[in-house]
Amino acid sequence: MATAPRPRTSTREPEELGRRLAAWLDVRLPGARVTNVSVPGSNGMSSETLLFDIEHPDTPLRACALRLAADPAAYTVFPTYDMPRQHRVMSLVAQHTDVPVPRVQWLEADPGPLGAPFFVMARAEGRVPPDVMPYTYEGNWLHAATDAERAALQEESISLLARLHEQFPSKEAEFLLPAGEGTPLRRHVDAQRAYYSWVVGGLAPSPLIERAFARLEELWPQDEGPAVLNWGDARIGNVIYDGFTPVAVLDWEMAAYAPREVDLGWTVYLHRFFQDLTVGFGQPGLPDFLRREDLERRYAELTGHTPRDMEFHTLYAALRHGIVMLRIAYRQAHFGEVEVPADPDSLILHHAALAAMVQGTYW
Average model confidence (pLDDT) for the chain? Predict the structure, then answer.
């Protein structure tokens, strides 16, 4: 992990984006100047983020962040990037909850100005637990924090999820239901099956992922529970913190209408993904941080809803993450960064953990 090349995240040039952004903004705010254009080092491999400032006496925003749909020519991680959908979700979360989301401003659905749809929002200042190297590794601010400080961050972070699920009116999230038939959970899983089919189209499928889908059917909850607005990519790496207090919840592209446990299972597993990697490379990581039993207990205390069928939901999270990992690996192969091995399962970084979940031996 320490020597693996970081996957390419963009084929775009920030300087060119800055010039095109200035031209677009001049139509909305004549005379405005776009300055300090930069791309954060933690930019993702799906939607891209551009940071910039606006100089104009009448602007509603000065420090801005722009969320740009992935370049369609760059072997995208997901098949579609619905920026109006993300803009709508963030606007509704701000309207109905006290969860801190950046204030969204302009939405541009026309791909002409920057090559893809985008929206502009207020930029939040603070720090984010890193993904590379993961916050479970030594040498970053969260790992260096005290146990009490990490406990405070954990409490604040699980509270975000609880408040989102409790405060947001479920009816307002029904527009996020995928097309199809069945319950919200069934539609969510069916959409993941469709995504997997897209990922492996014309390429080697993953026997492990297919076994995981089969295992989900065996573990399917008898009572799925009510659907709520799911953040979708619910993890601390998508939160900006001031000290140890959340000030901005980011990355709503995977928002969904699904049972609460879909979000909670993702939170639990994505931390375990980093923790397992860290232990595998000879470091202790943060074994007492974001533990499944602690998150489930505290979520129940905050909401009155005891999480259920978490073996199903953590397996589902690991399966979903595995599909994304497979797509990223095939993307790296497309750009000549890696070679595709004979066993496609080995492209999934957490294949051992996913296999253990399928076998029922992980937890």
Answer: 93
